């Protein structure tokens, strides 16, 4: 795989291709970090709508103290460009935000590649892998192509999944991660291109079970939302599922797997998913958790968890009363 065609300029401009809600959101993320951003869309009315949406969202963020500068200053870094060649000229990363259709993305990124020869080509795809998007494109394009899938909206949910294909050059993955991190996002590299990546596979697992529970008459839609909103979601707002169960059981993840693993296995089989937590799999997960949190620090972390829940409780209660 070749190196970038030309050297990268410090704080070089970025391009957002597609002026829908995700495109506007990425423009806010990049501009808020001080970068020049060019937004392109094939439809002039979409560009005008995006301009208005950008101003409205920045004003709302400013009202909540989430922009360090005035919203007008941040907005001044974003230009709305009708010409695609002008939009991507000399940029170091193109964030493609076209509809979730592989042929549309392939055609668009193929056109962009010739006019942005040193740029990383990052698709905002939610489920389509970079290999599918890049199939049939020249190697010089595929080596710069990857998926940069955000949480929605990325200016409030900072995780971004960086998904390279086997054809993606290491420099392209590294540049994408560095660009996102510089913009205040938290990049997570995803291997093997599973459909839906990590974000939507986790979300999908919950949704599949939620639909089954409604179908089986176990609980209503509102009751299931309440369990997540007032239970699981509160903890997950600052710790993930592995840390949650690690802190829920004295002895940590190993103890939890021993005590609860068989029950979770039966639940999976009930839904036709026979994926038991094997001893090797549990040992790998435990080793990663213990590297992050030695058992001798477990009690302190439990107290920390409880304090975070206490600190956030007034905000959650306020949200409930105003919803």
UniProtKB/TrEMBL annotation:
SUPFAM superfamilies, per database record: 6-phosphogluconate dehydrogenase C-terminal domain-like, NAD(P)-binding Rossmann-fold domains
Enumerate the transmembrane spans: 12-31
In its keyword annotation, does this UniProt entry include Ribosomal protein? no
Q: Where is the 3-hydroxyacyl-CoA dehydrogenase C-terminal domain?
A: 196-262
A Pfam family for this UniProt protein? 3HCDH
UniProt keywords, alphabetically: Membrane, Oxidoreductase, Transmembrane, Transmembrane helix
EC number(s) recorded for this UniProt protein: 1.1.1.35
Signal peptide interval: none
Q: Which Gene3D superfamilies match?
A: N-(1-d-carboxylethyl)-l-norvaline Dehydrogenase, domain 2, NAD(P)-binding Rossmann-like Domain
Q: Does the keyword Hydrolase apply?
A: no
GO terms for MF: (3S)-3-hydroxyacyl-CoA dehydrogenase (NAD+) activity
**PANTHER family named in the record:** 3-HYDROXYACYL-COA DEHYDROGENASE FAMILY PROTEIN (PTHR48075), 3-HYDROXYBUTYRYL-COA DEHYDROGENASE (PTHR48075:SF5)
Which family, according to the similarity comment? Belongs to the 3-hydroxyacyl-CoA dehydrogenase family.
Q: What's the protein name?
A: 3-hydroxyacyl-CoA dehydrogenase
